[in-house]
Amino acid sequence: MIGFLLAASVGNVASSAEAAEPPKAYFPPPENKGGWRVVTDPEEVRRLAGMDLKKLDEAWDYVKSLDDNSSLLVVRHGWLCYERYQGGVTPTSNEDMHSCGKAFTGVAVAVLMNEKRDLFPEKLDQLVYDPKYLPKEAFPLTDPRKAEINLGQLLSHTSGIRGNNPCYGPDGKLTIDPAGPDGSFPDDVAFGNADWGGTSAGTLWTEPGGGYSYASGGVLILGAMVRHLTGKEVADYLGEKVFAPIGWEGWKWYDNPPEPDGSRHTKAQGGIQPRPRDALRFGYLLLHLGKWKDRQIIPEWYAEAMRKPSPYNPYYSGYGLLVVVNPGRERMPSAPPDTYGASGAANNHIFVVPSLDMVVVRIGGTDRTSESFNTVQDKIIGGVVRAVVP
After folding, report:
1. For 157-187, what is the HEC assignment?
2. Phi and psi torsions of 278, nearest 5°
3. What is the mean pLDDT of the chain?
4. I need a labelling partner for 36 at 20 to 30 A (CA). Which of 5, 55, 172, 372 fits?
5. Is 251 helix (H, G, I), strand (E, B) or coil?
6. How many CB atoms lie within 10 A of CB 207?
7. Rounded mean pLDDT of 59-80?
8. Domains with residue ranges and CATH for the chain
9. Are 362 and 71 in contact (CB under 8 A)?
10. Single pTM value for the model
11. What is the pLDDT of residues 132-184, one digit of tens each?
C-alpha cells in the first residue's frame, strides 16, 4: 500500500513524496510446513541476522562445555541463524526446562484473565483465595492472612508463601526458617494441607506483599485457579490457547505426584518440555508482545509487563512476573538491561532481548561445571550478545 499526500485543490494529485508501508513482521509456519527460515553461510548470517558466526561458535564452545546434553539456538531479525545440539538434545527431543514452566503458567493466567474479564475486575490486584477462584481443597485457609493474597503477588513470589532461600525483605537479603517446599509436589502441599520433605506451606513467612521468596507453591496455586475456572489443566489450556496458534508440535509437560484422591495435575511450577525450535517460538511470541501474525494471543498489557520489574516485587530486582529481568544489568551484566525471559534449573533459558530483536534458547544440563547458576546464565547470554555485529 502506498501513502499519498493529497493536494487541497480539485483533482487531487499524488505527491512524489511517497512513504512505503513497513513490511509485515515475519512469523514461521509450523515445522511440518517448512518451519523457521534458516541462514547458515557466514556472510549471510552477518548480512541478514547481523551476527558474527565465529563468535557464535565461541558462545557454543562454552555452552557445550557445561554438559554432555546441550543445545544453543539463536533467532535474530526473524532468522534462525544458529542451531547446535549435543548428546541427547536434538531438534525433536523433549527435554525438561524445569522452572521455565513458571513463565508459561503466568501466560496462562494472563490469557484466562482476558478471556474471563468479569472475574478479574481488579486485574493483578484481584484477591484469589476465594471459592470463586480456587477449588474446595484450598479451604479452610491454613493461615488467615492468605485471604489478602492477590494475583500480582503470586506472579511475583511476594505472596508470603514459603519458598527457597535466600529471601528478600525491606532491609535486603534474609533467610527464612523454615523454608518452603520445592520441586515436584502435589497441590495439596501448596494449599498447606500436607508437608513435603519436612517443609510446609501451611503458614506464611510474612504478610502478603511483605517480601520475596521464590515459592513454587504459589505457582501451583495459579495452576489450580486455571483448572478451577476452565475445567482444563494448565498444559491443555495453553495447548489450545497458545501452543497450537504459534505452531508447536510434539510438546510434553510433566505432572506432579498424585493428590490424595489419586488425581494428577500439570506441574505448573516446572516440567515444560518443548522441542527446541518451539521454545524459540514462545520467545518470539514474547518478542512481539504476545502477537502472532494478526492475532493477539497474550494480552499486550501483560506481555509488556513481563519486560519490566514487577511493581509487586520491590525487594529483588532480578525477578518480575514469573520471568527473570535485568534492570540495571544486575542479574546479567553481559546482556542489555531489557533482557528477560523464562529461566529454569540446570540453566535452561528462553532469553528475549527486544533491543537486539533477538531470542536465545539454551536447553540442557550443567553437570560439567561448578560455576554458580547466575554466572553460567550471564556467560550464556553474554557470549551470544558479543556475537552481534556493531
Report:
1. CCCCCCCEEEEEECCEEECCCCCCCCCCCCH
2. -80, -30
3. 94
4. 55
5. coil
6. 13
7. 98
8. 31-96+274-385 (3.40.710.10), 100-234 (3.40.710.10)
9. yes
10. 0.94
11. 999 999 999 999 999 999 999 999 999 999 999 999 999 999 999 999 999 99
